[in-house]
# Entry
Amino acid sequence: MELKSQNGQHAQNLFDHAITLLPCVDQLWYKCIYLEELLQNVPGTRQVFERWMEWEPDDKVWEVCIKMEEQYNEMDRASVIYERWIAVRPEPRVWVKWGSLRRRGQSRIMRERFFIMRWSSMEMTRSKWRRLKLCLAHSPKWRRS
# Structure
């Protein structure tokens, strides 16, 4: 009703209150995001997605968030969202989806982040980290891109 009467601010307040009270209802989150995009409020849309990501939603939600960032050519933000998604669900299919960014010019960044995330999940001493950095710095395979 608020959207039909073009009272966007009041509709935003209603949806914000609704997702605060019922954070597990995906439909409310989607409508809130739709409203923010309808009002062309990209920072507001990102804030809603950030709040939703704290609840670790379904994979479809992560994909929608990444697709939005790619739509605005924010590949770095999309890559960071992939990292968070992998931290929540470290499954091969998510890694493969993140690998699709390699075709878009993110190969060097992805390799670095992959190694950091992979090795940080294991307990490493400072000497092992130094050794790893030296190996990566002197390896011609990693300096190419």
